[in-house]
User: What shape does this take?
Amino acid sequence: MIPRRATPEDLPATLALIRAAFAFMEGRIDPPSSMYRLTADDLATSEVWVMGSPPVACIVLTPKADALYLGKLAVASTERGKGHARALIDLAERRARELDLLTLELQTRIELVENQQTFEAMGFTELARTAHEGYDRPTSITYRRPL
Assistant: This one.
């Protein structure tokens, strides 16, 4: 399966994919995921890439001043272990180069040790630990990977 730019018709199914893929976090992370506030309209204003029709994997890319931010990387539970996340990260690397950005950046929650291990295995290194507003302890880890 090859990543493709999401169409407006893909966005409701993409939002459903994100919600299903992130559901395991409920009760594990504090504060709750921002995906609860995410809408298809929000996705329509973003650079969203998907795999499959309907989408079985997705990623949201956001250029920053010094890095391409990778958000809402999601893979359907039935599709895990098939290399979709790696294909989307590879796509993000190509997009970053096209945008003259030399670094990929993403965040994961402190509680999600399995995500941390996955991103570290893909060459990301921890940059910082940050706290969501109102929290006096780190709640997220920012990772970076130079290209």
Notes: Residues 4-146 form a domain with the Aminopeptidase fold (CATH 3.40.630.30). The longest helix spans residues 84-98. The chain has a mean pLDDT of 95. The chain has one domain: 4-146.
